[in-house]
Design brief:
mainly alpha, elongated, 111 residues
Length: 111
């Protein structure tokens, strides 16, 4: 089932463009905006920890927005990092099947 183009554009405007416009219209300093964006993308897995540690050095909404925007990139890198981890550790090839995923979630052994 395809998403209508207008629905996708409305979602993009509501979720990405409008929050970014609100952040920029509040007069945030470019240095703080750049740091917050970099933190949101780099520390995308735990953005709340970055916000808690840096407090006034970063802008929390910008970190969260950058994290939201970076999520597709992070998800697309799961398989390459999994394969890279196999090479580095010398571990066995992990099968990427629905059965393997079920075993990971249930804690069942692969042996």
């Amino acid at each position: 089932m395809a998403i209508p183009k207008m629905g996708l554009m409305a979602w993009f405007n509501k979720s990405i463009v409008d929050p970014l416009y609100q952040i920029l219209s509040r007069g945030l300093e470019p240095k703080q905006l750049a740091l917050s964006t970099a933190l949101g993308i780099t520390l995308g897995i735990f953005p709340i920890c970055a916000i808690a540690l840096l407090r006034s050095l970063c802008h929390a909404p910008t970190v969260m927005l950058a994290n939201f925007i970076a999520t597709p990139l992070e998800l697309s890198l799961v398989v390459p990092f999994l394969r890279f981890g196999e090479v580095i550790s010398g571990g066995p090839h992990f099968p990427l099947t629905s059965d393997a995923l079920k075993k990971v979630f249930t804690g069942t052994s692969f042996a």
